[in-house]
Amino acid sequence: MAFTSSASLYLGIDVGTGSARAGIFDEHGKLLKSASSPLQIWKEGNCIEQSSTDIWLAVCAATRAACQLANVSGEDIASVGFAATCSLVAVGEDDSPVTVSWSGDARRNVIVWMDHRAVEQAERINSYNSPVLQYAGGALSPEMQPPKLLWVKENLNESWAVAFRWMDLSDWLTYRATGDDTRSLCTTVCKWTYLGHAHMQQMNTKNTKAMDACGWDDVFWQEVGLGDLVEGHYAKIGKSVAFPGHPLGAGLTGTAAQELGLCEGTPVGAALIDAHAGGIGVIESVPSSNIKSQEEEKMEALCHRMVLVCGTSTCHMAVAQNKVFIPGVWGPFWSAMVPELWLTEGGQSATGALLDHLVENHVVAPLLANRAASQNISLYELLNRTLESMAREIQAPFVASLSKDVHVLPDFHGNRSPVADPSAKGMISGLTLDSSEKQLAVLYLSTVQSIAYGTRHIVEHCNAHGLKIDTLLACGGLSKNSLYIQEHADIIGFPVILPRERESVLLGAAILGAVSAKKYSTLQDAMKALNAPGQVFYPAQDPKVKKYHDAKYRIFRALYEQQVSFRSLISDALG
């Protein structure tokens, strides 16, 4: 099949933790059809691994299935855009997988984003207090790439010796698709300590180009023990970078096109991390009454919004016209999401994953799952209905008050923001011997609220350090849960806007492709054309709801303080 520039559909591909998804969008940003394919994952303690071979096969399967469901051929696809988790991929000189696993299994060449094997390496890197760390919230997380690279070097000598390329997963996907090893400013700036603002003078969105990487800090890599990556002008980790949406290579290679069922030469844009693609896919999704008229005012309005990308974890994305340094919050990252704006990124490492963990491991979960399936609803919708029934039954003043005796600290996978404590643990106060359905419903409600209190903590912290957030936009799987979104609106006190198109990460990926195909002159133009608002959740008007959540929020903050105190007492006792 030959690519034709008259094609008008945009393909977005998103590789998440559990599946690869593909979605086909029309020129109005409306999703026609989507499909997914599951991914294999290996979990052994803190080590969580995947296979790039398995991932590519899943991408191809999802793409072909989406085209078939939409009844379109490869000739109808105008462009391709990729988004993925910020997992780390290792390949050899011939592009074959290089193991990152203790097992030695060559298939396992991807360290998954949520892998925490490199906690000690992260602590050691942070102890050097490199100037680059001020652009990462003051400290690197073990989820970022330098600690993981150092772990491999110190523990898997053979893999370190033969690895020819170390790539963020979304960059590997565009490389696999096009043969172009240009890295995205999003991945390199957000996860690799690349200083994107080194390119501020080169910014020209009307004629972007791949740029020689001038934002690496030689001293940082050498002092942390990874100086060998400086060789060859950082060839192994990125000697060329580009703004998201920049057209890569000559588009799809013949091999990739055949595997995907698309046309050789179909334009492919430089990628984004999945959460950042969600930001691109939703941040302009505001009602027309909220849109300012002047261009400068529009840019300022953008800086009052925070996007919550709610899935396995939650990312909190906000942009600013000037760089703002916020302790415990990643960034500021220049042009890592919206070109020319500084991105700050808060996060909670386990949100959807935490709800699944607490609900699915409860003794009554199998019974409730069967009941939900018989009613053709999700387990969480069943729990939402149970809570409403309980509130009516006991004449509770409002559903949220059912959690009055149960308090949760949701740091079951550490605290990413704003205290940046990877050793933080989850806490639950108020447990009894009750293991009924109602008890699970209350625990679920309390956990949802705790996640929202965590977001409130992030928003308050960001605003205290110079941001001006007053509106939230939400996307991702958890945004489909009405209770989850309403609790966030009530607890934070801001309206939460959902986009018309609920698959915002797929849309964000598709937007990158549309820009690469020159369908729009800038990423901002594409966002404005393809984003659209949907339902808006407003904070409850009842002052008692606010008073209740203010009290529970104080308890939420106290739980972490108590944990730190307990940690100190035990440390002294064992000292």
UniProtKB/TrEMBL annotation:
<comment type="similarity">
    <text>Belongs to the FGGY kinase family.</text>
</comment>
<dbReference type="InterPro" id="IPR006003">
    <property type="entry name" value="FGGY_RbtK-like"/>
</dbReference>
<dbReference type="InterPro" id="IPR000577">
    <property type="entry name" value="Carb_kinase_FGGY"/>
</dbReference>
<keyword id="KW-0418">Kinase</keyword>
<dbReference type="InterPro" id="IPR043129">
    <property type="entry name" value="ATPase_NBD"/>
</dbReference>
<dbReference type="InterPro" id="IPR018484">
    <property type="entry name" value="FGGY_N"/>
</dbReference>
<feature type="domain" description="Carbohydrate kinase FGGY C-terminal">
    <location>
        <begin position="307"/>
        <end position="517"/>
    </location>
</feature>
<dbReference type="Pfam" id="PF02782">
    <property type="entry name" value="FGGY_C"/>
</dbReference>
<dbReference type="GO" id="GO:0019150">
    <property type="term" value="F:D-ribulokinase activity"/>
</dbReference>
<dbReference type="GO" id="GO:0005737">
    <property type="term" value="C:cytoplasm"/>
</dbReference>
<protein>
    <recommendedName>
        <fullName>FGGY carbohydrate kinase domain-containing protein</fullName>
    </recommendedName>
</protein>
<dbReference type="GO" id="GO:0019321">
    <property type="term" value="P:pentose metabolic process"/>
</dbReference>
<feature type="domain" description="Carbohydrate kinase FGGY N-terminal">
    <location>
        <begin position="9"/>
        <end position="281"/>
    </location>
</feature>
<keyword id="KW-0808">Transferase</keyword>
<dbReference type="InterPro" id="IPR018485">
    <property type="entry name" value="FGGY_C"/>
</dbReference>
<dbReference type="Pfam" id="PF00370">
    <property type="entry name" value="FGGY_N"/>
</dbReference>
